[in-house]
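Page 37, continued from 36.
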């Protein structure tokens, strides 16, 4: 009887530790410093590490208008995005190295997961913002952004 109790307690402890590790890695990405930039009436976060890019906006309940997240990649590529773990719709804006918008996915919804969205050409930057923000800002394909990228 005593051996069964010890085995049970060891299994329970192992389960708690494993569950805690799973929760920590799946629910909470490592927290790193996020650089916030402001340009006129538009504020954005710069995410330029693998951990920050992987987390993105997932897990947040919302972001305000005039606000976005600028993904900075080390190299130009066809950087695809999906809506995994997103709680709200967003506009995805692909920007080339000259700061020119080359692609926009308007109002991508969480329900679109697991679909991925891609630019028409390799880019080093992607901006995510609230639905309709690109239109409110007057941004379209070919727009030169004044973001300090």
């Amino acid at each position: 009887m005593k051996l069964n109790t010890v085995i049970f307690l060891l299994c329970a402890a192992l389960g708690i530790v494993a569950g805690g590790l799973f929760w920590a890695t799946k629910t909470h990405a490592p927290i790193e410093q996020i650089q916030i930039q402001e340009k006129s009436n538009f504020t954005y976060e710069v995410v330029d590490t693998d951990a920050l890019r992987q987390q993105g906006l997932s897990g947040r309940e919302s972001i305000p208008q005039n606000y976005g997240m600028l993904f900075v990649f080390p190299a130009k590529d066809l950087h695809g995005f999906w809506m995994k773990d997103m709680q709200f719709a967003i506009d995805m804006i692909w920007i080339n190295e000259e700061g020119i918008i080359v692609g926009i996915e308007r109002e991508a919804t969480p329900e679109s997961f697991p679909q991925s969205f891609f630019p028409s050409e390799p880019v080093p930057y992607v901006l995510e913002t609230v639905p309709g923000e690109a239109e409110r800002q007057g941004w379209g394909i070919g727009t030169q952004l004044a973001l300090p990228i």
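The first strand starts at residue 35 and ends at 39. Flag for discussion at group meeting. The helical segments are 2-27, 50-55, 133-137.
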